[in-house]
Write a structure and sequence with these properties.
Elements lengths: L8 E4 L2 E4 L3 H13 L5 E6 L1 H9 L1 H8 L2 E4 L2 H11 L9 H11 L5 E6 L2 H14 L4 E6 L9 H10 L3 E5 L4 H9 L7 E4 L3 H6 L7 H5 L3 H8 L1 H25 L10
Helix pairs in contact: 1-5, 2-3, 2-12, 3-8, 4-12, 11-12
Length: 259
Amino acid sequence: MPALEKGQHRDIMGIRVAALGWAQALDELTHAIYGNGPQRIFNFLNANNANLAMRNAKYRQGLSKSEVLPDGVGVDIASRALHGTSFPANLNGTDFIPALLVHAEKPLKVALIGARPEILERAVANFRSATPWHQFVAVSDGYFDKTDSAKVLADLAAINPDITLVAMGSPSQEIWIDSNIRQGHGRVVFGVGALFDFVSGAVPRAPEAIRNLRLEWVWRLVQEPSRLWRRYILGNPVFLFHLLRYKVFGAGRQSGMPA
């Protein structure tokens, strides 16, 4: 269950999203990793994921049982519309996870699950190069049988990691984490989407100037139009429609949401 205090979250279309600045988020996560508290699970919310949550109850359940960090300009638009102000920081996993690993100065065991085998291998190598004081272990690529995760979970428990990164894409990763991850599978667990693709270099990041303008989604669309056009060209207007409906009618009128 979410461990942040009241007032550190904002309701984004019925989803509790953490409202933390960069320094506060890094300190919060570092404390969770090195402390003696219960396991904590973190996922990320962007406009596309919010659309998925409107129609997928199991995915929404996975989000509701984890702590959710804001990712991208879409949730900032929602925060301004619903709360009058943007989130203190864009805590997207592609930037936040590497920053957290740099911030965590004591050696950690980090387990990785997901992506294609060659992507996973390169991601592990690049993580080791960037933060060599941590131990990175590739547990499994993302192509194992999700209906029989016993071996993956046993291997994960044998590692007993401090951090577990699960990169299966949404909503699969959040549903799998909610259904399978338990104590001993990582003190802190993240659903990280395409993080391994970026860290491995398989998918290039947008230039810093484009990222600063909050237009990385445009860059990604140009790079992979056949895969991403539905997410952005169709998905962005759908997200704004859901946002308008939530602002006018509230949670009880949202499709697939409890009254």
